[in-house]
Amino acid sequence: MLVLAIGAHPDDVEIGAAGLIAKLCDDGHDVYILVLTDEEADGARRREEAQRSAKELGVQEDRLLFAAFGDGHLRTNKDSVARIRCIAAAAGANPDLVIVHSGADSHNDHVEANSLARSAFRGCVFLYYSIYLSGEQSTFSPHVFIDLSKDRAALKERALAAHRSQVSRLSQFDLVAYERKWGSRIGLDRVEALEIMAQNKSSSVFEHTISLSESPFHRFWSPIVGRSNISLLYAVQSTRGAAVDWPTADEAAGRDELRRSFAASWYPRSPLVEYASDHPQARDVLKTGHTLLVGSGVNSAAFHDYQDHGPSRWSVEFEVPRTGHAYLYSHLNGRSLRPALGVTGELNSDFGLLAKHANPHSGRHWILRAVGATGFATRAALSFMANPSGYPDLARILNAEEDVWVAFEVSASDLGLRIVSVDK
Q1: Using CA atoms, how far apart are residues 42 and 51, in angstroms rounded to an integer?
Q2: Quick one: which H or E segment has residue 404?
Q3: Residues β-bridged to residue 66
Q4: Residues ≥6 apart with Cβ < 8 Å to 378
Q5: What phi, psi does 408 have (nearest 5°)?
Q6: Using one digit for the tens of pLDDT, what is the confidence trace for 293-312?
């Protein structure tokens, strides 16, 4: 990708995204930095500091650009937009990805930088960084996180140290504490947190940008949910007409795990909304947005309606009359996957299903499915969705395909998942 990182002031990019810039340079992307303003009294010195800092991050000297707007007087208008476009064009910087200030900021130059970038570069993917000195944390909504490992953190510190004239200002608040606060919420020590926004460019740029995130949870869920909600519809026990009065404690525990992960990691609020399958709004919810179906028609008659939506590769079935556990059945080849029981009837292993396909009522939304032959595998499917880091191949399959059904086996002894079948 060709990447343009924009800062209102000479040290802003380093404060908010030095780790990301270093990562992009290491990965071989073409990275440019554009500084929008100059200080009237000390402009020459600030430019020299910016050059030393960019060199530390791996940005070539001729790819550090200056727009020379007045500090504190940045404005988005016809002239400023044209000026930015001319500077970028002259440098050959027609970006796929633009990194710039978040609009969730109290500094006027930072807010204008965000507006100016969006006006000047259309059809791009944007990453918005936060400045710890002025960011508005209550409205900042990051979904991409860059891990500031020991080496990357040291590089960032060297890049910031190049801005010697700003030492007293930068030390007013604790940047490391700010980065550790975000890291603690996603299970990492210290991170740069960034919002993501896509205009009309190729989806491959968006997908590649999402893949930069070093939070497995966000890397899995962001391409699916984006900035929308996702409605979780769960099967209810003892629904009138259900074939089996199947226990739902395991399913409930899995929903708890997923709910906690979203609540702890998604900003500014969780997108997960839960409905019982017999809720009056359930049918409307299914037709109008992203939906996660948890459970099957085995223990909820109402779920038969939902299972019929879209082409079904697999379903959960049961013997009539009931003689044992339900089982996973393939509609493609007639294969049956049945839970394995011990000599005393204890569950040794179970089979489950994770699926994703387009919502037939709305092509802009997804239907996901998480179901097991018993509630044990249903919980395993939800546990994976709550923490995808343990199974990167499974996460990659579900993200990469638009219509995919993954049958898996889960061991009761170690809770490990094993992919059995991938059907597209």
Answers
A1: 15
A2: strand 404-411
A3: 35
A4: 250, 251, 254, 294, 295, 352, 370, 371, 372
A5: -140, 160
A6: 998 766 555 565 555 455 57
Distances (CA, A) of 117 to 46, 100, 214, 350, 374: 22, 7, 25, 52, 52
Only one residue has tokens 């960032």, namely 156
The per-residue pLDDT for 241 is: 43
Task: Give 3-state DSSP helix, strand, coil % of the chain, rounded to 5.
Answer: 40, 25, 35
Give residues with Cβ within 8 angstroms of 367, minimum separation 6.
286, 290, 291, 292, 293, 309, 310, 355, 356, 357, 358, 359
List, in order, residues 6 or more apart from 301 with CB less than 8 Å away: 239, 240, 241, 242, 243
SS3 of residue 61 by DSSP:
helix
Q: Is the N-terminal amide bond of 392 cis, ω within 30° of 0? A: no
Cβ pair 142, 213 in contact under 8 A: no
- What are the structure tokens assigned to 314, written together? 């697999």
Q: What residues of the chain score a pLDDT lower than 70?
A: 200-202, 237-247, 297-311, 320-323
Name which of 124, 81, 132 is nearest 104 in CA terms.
Answer: 132
* pTM recorded for the entire structure: 0.79
Measure Cα distances from 28 to 21, 31, 58, 103, 215 in Å: 11, 9, 10, 29, 21
On whether the CB atoms of residues 278 and 302 are closer than 8 A, the answer is: yes
